[in-house]
Amino acid sequence: TYEGGLREARVGPGFRQQVTVTALREPRPVRPSFGEAATTMVPASWTTPAGVARTGQVQVPAGTRAGQTVPLWIDRAGDPTTPPPSRTDVVLRGVGMAAFVQVLAFLLVLGAVAALRRLLDRRRYADWDAAWIRANDRWRRPRRP
Question: Are the C-beta atoms of 38 and 32 separated by less than 8 Å?
Fold first, then answer.
């Protein structure tokens, strides 16, 4: 998980790069939801590191003016993509997965111990019942008429 996160976090040619986009028009006013940053989609233009001019809809912060520049992450094809995870995110994902695996292993061992205990208890109870039947046959006295 950690190594996958590091691969996902790679930036640079062939992975993802940050470019500057220019908003072509002002976004419509939006009201942010509770706890969310106000963002909206606007048409924008940018140039890829290979020098290809691109245009498309990109997400920008609310209040961005026409002609204003905003950073944008693009993939190797020049299309907008998500920003790479931070080093902290990668480490937390790795630690979280390690903790999950340890808890899962503990629960599997706990389940195996519980199943073995149940199996041994059933055998012990069967032996106990058989011993009482033998004792009953041995200790029983014939009744006198």
Answer: yes
Segment 45-64 shows an average pLDDT of: 87
- 96's tokens: 């979280």
- Greatest pairwise CA separation for the chain in angstroms: 116
Q: Which residues of 78-95 are buried (b: 16+ CB within 10 A; e: fewer)?
A: bebeeebeeeeebeebbe
From 48, 59, 53, select the one nearest 18 (Cα to Cα).
Answer: 48
Residue 134 has which token pair?
Answer: 């033998």
Which residue has tokens 């691109």? 54
Q: Which of 17-26, 48-57, 97-106 has the highest mean pLDDT?
A: 97-106
3 state DSSP class of 13: coil
In the chain, beta strands by DSSP E? 16-23, 39-47, 53-61, 69-75
| pLDDT at residue 46 greater than cutoff 80 | yes
Comparing CA positions, the residue from 92, 37, 84, 90 lying closest to residue 60 is 37
Q: HEC string of 79-135?
A: CECCCCCCHHHHHHHHHHHHHHHHHHHHHHHHHHHHHHHHHHHHHHHHHHHHHHHHH
Taking a C-beta distance cutoff of 8 angstroms, is the pair 61, 37 a contact? yes
